[in-house]
Structures are given as structure tokens and as C-alpha cells.
Design brief:
Elements lengths: L6 E5 L3 H12 L3 E5 L3 H20 L5 H9 L1 E4 L10 E4 L5 H12 L7 E4 L6 H5 L8 E6 L8 E6 L5 H13 L3 E6 L6 H17 L5 H12 L5 H8 L1 H15 L8 H8 L16
Parallel strand pairs: 1-2, 1-4, 2-3, 4-5, 5-6, 7-8
Antiparallel strand pairs: 6-7
Bound molecules: acetoacetyl-coenzyme A.
Acetoacetyl-coenzyme A binds next to helix 2 and helix 9.
Length: about 280
Amino acid sequence: MAREIGRVGVVGLGTMGAGITEVLARNGLSVVAVDVDDEGIARGRGHLEHSTSRAVAKSKMDEPAREKLLGSVSYTTTLADLADCDLVIEAIPEQLELKARVFNELDGIVGPDTILASNTSSLSVTEIGVHTGRPGKIVGMHFFNPAPVLKLVEVVRTVVTEQDVVDDVVAFAQRLGKEPVVIGDRAGFIANALLFGYLNHAVAMYESRYATREDLDAAMRFGCGYPMGPLALLDLIGLDTAYEILETMYAQSRNRLHAPSPMLKQMITAGLLGRKSGRGFYTYD
Ligand code: CAA
């Protein structure tokens, strides 16, 4: 019988964790949101307050509904507060040791049937979950940025993920109004494996002065119907995140398409991380 998923934990309230929290709360779930410190909590809470006040301003939500939604999320800096969650989604920085440590800790906190999901975009879900006592209940649940808008969720099954866990996570993603796809534990899964070769190529073209950044982006927007050009999209993703994803995929595939363009590294070193730092390929207010 399918699991009842009513209470969900989110660990890490960066861009993705905050966006995932918003998706869950908008779908009537009770959410326990965790970050390491008060600053992280304030960022997550601020994200949800800002996004829902925008929805009220656009008359897409009324004030009582907003209050109810905000009240359905509790914030904490203590992982132990996730004890009665049916599902926990981890969205902390892309460092394998850090993720493995959090999963190991979560394993000792939540009930035996609870599913532990990682929003990792390129690390191995198998390696993240292997040090827990429940490798069969570990999956990837990879959302796309901005999570409240984009419908794809990649459900990543490892060789030991139990079938009913995959089925329940797929059904849960559908309940959130998402379009789940199921994929094995391969670097980049489906979307990033296809997308990042293209993004990396765009950086190389820009670096070799093939065309201006505006023209490179305009070509893909107006010629191919993409909502954003590749350089603007890299700014949205974050150049540091993009670099990490490319490096992981290159290490696994040795496909030259995924060898990060040198310019990416230089921009990151100079602090140009994209929207989050105010400047990347473009400058933001
Ligand atoms: N959070 C919540 N809602 C947001 C949002 C955010 N961060 N950004 C935009 N929205 C909402 C807006 O409120 C608006 O909602 P309504 O229609 O209800 O009013 C809607 O999205 C459209 O936004 P805008 O009108 O401001 O702007 P737009 O139409 O230009 O769309 C966009 C903006 C959604 C970002 C769109 O340009 C887009 O889809 N771009 C491509 C993004 C993409 O490819 N993401 C994948 C990155 S790869 C990844 O995430 C994987 C990984 O592992 C790195």
C-alpha cells in the first residue's frame, strides 16, 4: 500500500531548498524546514514571505490563504525535529561528505519507513545513501530552478532503491503538480547531462569572441524558443554550481563536452557567480 506522505522535512534553505519548501507548502503539506543557523532560517523564511506576498499582489492568492500557507512551515536548526516526517528532502551544498554525514544522522532520527531524498544535481545518490541503514529507501528527487515554476522532477533510483519507494515518490511528485521522470544514478541524470554540454559550449563561444553575450542569448531565445539564453541561464543557475556539475560529469564521462571552460573558473575566482553575487555574464541590481 502506498505511503501517506503528510509531513515533509527540507534540509537546507538555499535557492533550491527554499523553492522546494514553497512547492510543498503551496500543496497543503506540513513542512519542517531546517538550516544550520538563524541566518539560513531567515533567508528561507524571507524567500517564502516574498514569493507569497508577490502572489497576493498579483491576486493569485488571498491573505488568509497566505497566512495559512506560512503557518504550515516550521523552522528549526535541529535535525532531530524531523523525527516524525514521512519524507525528508535534502538540499544542502553539493559536497559528498557533507551530504553523507547528514543522511547518516537523519537515518538515526526518522522512522524506519521514512524515505530520504536528495536534491543533488550531479553527485551519486548511491554514495550519499550507502552509509545509512536504509539504502533501499534512498532516492534522488531533483527539482529545477525556479522550483515553484518548473515542472520537472528527476526521480533517481539507485540499484538498491526499493520499487515501492520509487512508486511513492513518483506519485508524490505528481501530487505536487510536477512531471516526474525516473532515471538511474548517472552523473547529470537526464536534463543536466543534455543541458550542460550546451551551456559549456556557449561559454567557450563567448570566450573566443564568437559573438556578443546578448547575441548568443538572443539566438537561442528567438531562434529556438528557449525562455532564456545560455549565458543568462548560467547566471541563474550560479557559475559555481554549474562548474561543480560540469566537473562531476566530466570526471565520470570523460566527454570533452563537459570539460569546464577555463573562463568559468576565472569568473568564479573573481567572485562573479551570477545573479546571487550581483554579477556574472550580466550585472544585476
Ligand atoms: N520563485 C517563484 N516563482 C518565480 C520565480 C522564483 N524564483 N521566478 C519566476 N517566478 C514566477 C513568476 O512569479 C511568474 O509567476 P506568474 O506567472 O504566476 O505571475 C512566472 O514565474 C514567470 O516569471 P516572470 O514573468 O518574472 O519571468 P519569465 O516569464 O521570464 O520566466 C523563468 C522566468 C521562469 C525563470 C523562465 O525564464 C525560465 O523558465 N527560464 C529557464 C530556467 C531553466 O532552464 N532552469 C533550469 C536550470 S537547470 C537546473 O535547475 C538544474 C540544476 O541542477 C542546476
